Amino acid sequence: MSRGSSPEGTGGAGTFFECRVAAVELGALLCRIPVEGLEGPPTEIRLQQGDTGFPLDDVIAVDRSGPFPFVVEKQVKRTLRIAPSEEPWRKTVSQCLQSLHQHGPEIDARRRLLGVVATGPVRDLEELAKLAKAADRPCVDDFRVELAVTGRRGESYHRMWRHLTSTVAQLMTAPDGTGPALDVVEETAFRIARRLVVQIEPETGGATYRSLLGLLEAMVVDTQRGPGAADVFRRLTDIAAEYGPQGGVIDVRMLRDLLHARGAVLRADPPALAEVEAVRRWTERFLASPRVGRQLGGRLRLERAQQVEVLREAVGAHERVLLSGPAGAGKSALARKLAGTMHAAGGTVFALSLTERAWHTVADIGHEVGARLERALAAAPGGMRLLLVDGAEQVLTDDGALLSSLLEVLPRAEGGRWRVLAVAREQAADGVERVLGRVDGGEVHRLQMQLLDDDEVRSVLAAFPGLRRLLRSPRSARLLRHLFVVEQLVRAAGDVVLPRQVLGEEDIADWVYEGLVRCGGVRRPGGGGPDERTDVYLAMADAVIDGHAWASLRGCSGAAREGLVGDGILVRGGAEFAFAHDVHQDYAIAVRLGMSDAPDVTGVVGPRRLLRGFRLWAQMLLARTARRAPARLPAAWREITSRAHDVAGGGDVRWADVPFEALFELGESRGVLAALAAQLLDDGAVALVSAASRRLPDAEAAVPVLDFLLAQADALAPHAADAALVCTATWLLALGERTPRELVARVPGAVACWYDGGPRRAQEAACALACAAERLDDDARDLLAKIAFRHPLSVQCVVEDRRLSLPLARHEPALLARLARSFYLGHPHSQDHVDAREGVREPGWPLVSRVAREVLQRGPDPADLGPFGVLVEHAPDHGLALIGAVADAATSAVMRRGDTRAARPVSVTWPLAGSLRTYVGPHRVSAWLWAGEAGPGPVIAALAALHRWANARAGAGAALAEIVEQVLGCGESLALVSVVVDVLCQHAARIETELDPALEQPAIWLLPTTSSAMVAAVPIVVSRAGRERQEAYRLLGQRLVAEHAALPEAQLAAPGVVERQRTRDHVFRTMAALLDCAQYEQVELPDGRGRVVVNRAVRQMYAEAEETQGDLHRFVESFALAEDACRARDETDTVDVHRLFERMAVLEAALEVSPPLEGLGDLEDIRAAVAAVLVQRAAGEDGVEPWQLHWAGEQLMAAAASTPSALTSTDLVCEEQNHKAGDRSAAHILPLLLADEDLRRRTRLTAQDTSTATAAVASSDFIEVRNTLTTALTNQWTHGPCSGPADRLHTEGLAALNTMVATAGLHPPDESGNRQPYQLTSPVPTLRTSTTAILDLRLAAPAVSALHHAARTDCIHRAEADALLQALTAHDRLTWTKQSADMAKRSRPWRRAHDTITAKQALAGDRGRLEETVTAFANEPDALVDLLLSLARQATTPTQITELLTLWPGLLDRFLTSGRRCSGHLREALLPAPADGTRWPAQPTWVIITTWAKAHTGATARADHLIRILDRHQLFTSAAIALVLDVLGTDPAAVTCLSRSAVPFLQRVLTNPVLSAEPIGQHAHRLLDELAASANAEALQAQRALEEAPTLNRD
């Protein structure tokens, strides 16, 4: 429901009466009867819509059942006395005027009416209604006649007419007292009166009310089961009172839902109401379930208000929202809280969790809920509807089948759509997003569940002070951000102070076991003793290890089982138990594996499911050993790696990383890393660094590993050193200022040790050194400078990433400036020098646009880009020198190109330090300051940074003269002058003589970015000057105007300024006026608001300029008229043709009085479009005057004659698109005149006229004109049969197509490579035999389809058409592969037209043309790609599909033979996708797919295409997967580089429990593991998602 303004803010009728009127309208909506002013029943009622385009805003009735809406907007007043002095009446008329201004054409067309509703005075309202009836005349003149006649009879409504015209005249009077003409007043009042609807309603009762109650009782209300009609009307009044202040829009479905919610029972209510109620009861029980905790420790409720608000806004703005986050982060509680709030507010919510039940299908869900979900969800009340799907990570267990089915049952109709909020763990988020998006193709909005913020952590510590112990270490303090960990600690420890060793998750697991499972060794009444609870806990762990998520736990203590259930560790499902949370499951496995009688996991089925528990066990073992017997750490490491190797069976590469993950996740790992140095460096640290690059969760967790690597830098093997350099740069950049200082000190030495001097790791080395800017020594500086010299592109990240440039600017500004010069400007002797035409390097820069930033409100602030801002702020000398050098280089490059008028240099001077400096550059460079002109990104950023710095210094009180010296002293670009002038103008009140050099030079006044600033500043400068200086300024202005007037015209061109004489004169007149102190005067502001200084001469110039505003209005009207005429011509809109003609006549008259400087080209196009509309209308009906048709014929002939011929054109303009152009209108209508002889005679055109015009547009240089003509010819041929040999449509049409082909001739290239047009004298024989490309295919292409259509018609002309078509086909086969690359690229319509014809015939059973084409291109088969795709695209019927599948194997045999070289495009075209909405038979389709796949075994680059085709055919079987794996091959590097779909495909295979257990599943698993081992980021993410699967055999 959309919202409008509120009556509280806008005033209006009494609340009760307005709601009663609205209730009457709502009753009509419910009964489907008309309201006052509408001929049909309304489809929606709007309330309080003043800010959405309805000036009379109280109640609006809309009928959208027709082709366009009918609207009655009504203003409601309890009383409405009609007199010019009555304020309610004046306000109502003012609102009518506003509506007339906004919706005039709709009001005049009677599609929008103006209504007033009031109780009285009855006499006034009745007379006003009589006036409205009398004014219902076609025009005001007819109404004047009516007034004259009725005036003699003494009709009472004349008084209303006087009141209306007087009120309109008063409201239209300008503030200065200037009133409108009488004719204008009467015309406006008439337009209001004839569309006025007057409605008299009593405050209670009344005939309308009684009639409505009768209709409600007879048609709508079910009085047997609910309240009667009067009660329903009261409920309608309540709805109006509720939704009126909100600016509501109510349709009939929504109204019925609102009445249902208020207890009304209506007839024809859906039978599913009982099922809707079942869904409601299920949701209430689900949201109230204690399974999701709402308080920590039973006493602290974390409201997560900010998270809830973000989630609420997301659900309100998007249909599909995915909330993801780590396990135990509070996602479910947050989502359920929002759902509960919406449910309590009256919204419709269906909430469920996919992981809390063993559901397989939607029917299973419906059975447990007690409703058929498809019916229940469709019948749910309107308003906000939300489906909350918790536990969406269940998609990892069935490849999203259940979630997809659930989404499929949601209603799709507009007005009944549901919003979906899915909640999933972050490892499964990508999979859930794919499922959400693929059901209806909608966008999925993702939200990441945030960790606890600082305020929330403080609340936790205040409530549970025992947790403060965790703050002593940064790593353990991170645990306080995780809600689930905090919850477990609180439940285990309560207020007890935690032991000092609690640092990591291994300690949490240990503490949960001791404190929560064993209750600290104390028997809990009714909850079992410590040993009994341990037995239950470990028995459940054994069940999970054996592969069972649920277990009966027979033989275990009943009290202990129930105690663990009560403590939230286990859950009960019937007679079986399971772990309540995956984290508890992992903790139990870890504890079990650490016992002396731990089960042997080497033989379990699917050991990968135990990976998290195994890792935790390893962490616990390392932590305990480090605390109790550090000397035994190497032995513990050997045990961990040995067991991991045994579980892997020697072939699962994933397990090789698990010991290192345990090492990385330790709460305190520094000492363990040091104790294991010998073991970790045994292979040169290759395994350690490889695992770190893949498995470290974040930069903070990497600190101990980074410390170890930096300390052991010289002990790393070359491969490990290379990877360590990458990791170091990545981690340091992520850590930023949080990097420990002792680590920073060791970075330079390690980089020098690891970096080999080549380009491969130059960027990483530069980044790492930049991160250590505060601790660089001379050797490190030299190394960074050498990298910049030898590999300048590698330092781009250093100079442009603020995280790196800022520390360099602080600690090494000279080095940063040197790096920036190397990158932006290059070195003359560098192998990687800067292109002289560009001046500066800018690879990867964002588009820096003033429009994007200031108008569209997007894009970065240029001053924040690059190193310029930070460098000039921290080291001004270095920053200014760099900015000046960059500006000069870019300016010089623009001047060197010199290929446009805008590049002509302008020279200005400025006195600096006793000498006169010259600044040059084209006008365009001055606009770089504001990103108002396209230019190099770095120079725009540099100037923006310079401007910000200079402006800040001036604002801080620095001397303006000093700032001028600094800015202009850093370079010689004209852009620097624009910076200085703007900064001075912004501080005009402090200027003495600093701006004088700019005032004395007209070239500066004419710079695009300085003129407006100087206009604002000069009055301040002049007014503050002494008398002597004021006189000097006045004389300066006179001198500048005189010098300008004396200049010859050739010197007056000012690039970048509108080049009209009057504009130049205006600039210089403004300069002189502003510099003349005698022109200034003080003017009193109205209402005592003070005085202001104005310039009389400037004000006079502005007044003169206002007189020319009519140009703008005429431009707007001509634009609108052209659009309306073209829509009517193209039959995409219906317009009043007479009104269209009148508008054109008015525009012509206006342009005669004041012709536009650009000429009448647009008017000629408008004339042609209007002429086309007149001819079309005359062909279908009467009503067009003969003289108008004659005029139309003349305009169309003139338009046709105006199109440039392809034979004489010298410009490559043929691809221009302009649907408003006159020749397009002529081409659209000429075939109609050829087909309708009577119509042609009525336009007074001769047969020769139409023949000549048709030939002209057929030879047009514009492709769009030719396309328009052939489309119109084809349409006319389709609608009318041929009358014989002399049929003008067919004879002239074929002649036009011959002309079209003949005028597309092109000579061979001349010495300069240019091809000149010429006319083919005999197209058919020439094209059949010529082996040289002699056609401009772009110009000939429109004829192909038209000739094909003509050759298939049943008339005598078909032979001629077929002959020309065959000639074009022969020329295509002879020359297509010989076309220039540019012609082939621009000739897709030609290729598409031939291929469409060939495919259509082949699918119809005629393969002759196909065979000829394939044979012709046998040596250049790439030319067949579009034909192959067209064959598949056009096969939409069963017969065509059968024909396609019959001929396709032959094509495969021909082109996929061994040894034949084919492009990738052709190979993919040989395995096409079916047309949308079609299904191919399984058996022949499978034959084609297997043939193609076997021909591409090991061709990794083709795998993505095979996956797409299999998905289109919905083939996801073992055999299909095997084909994909064969095509992917076994090389992980190739898969990473050549396939984007491989990892998602492998993940789909492995989330399917049936497929993952088969041999192809093992194959897929190996490939995914190898990809992850090669550091493929996507594979690593998929691997983590699979490992985080939420449940194990839950059913």
Automatic annotation (TrEMBL):
Gene3D superfamilies (UniProt xref): P-loop containing nucleotide triphosphate hydrolases
SUPFAM superfamilies: P-loop containing nucleoside triphosphate hydrolases (SSF52540)
InterPro entries reported for this sequence: AAA+_ATPase (IPR003593), P-loop_NTPase (IPR027417)
Domain of life: Bacteria
Every AAA+ ATPase domain range: 317-489
Pfam families in the cross-refs: AAA_30
Annotated protein name in UniProt: AAA+ ATPase domain-containing protein
Phylogenetic lineage: Bacteria, Bacillati, Actinomycetota, Actinomycetes, Kitasatosporales
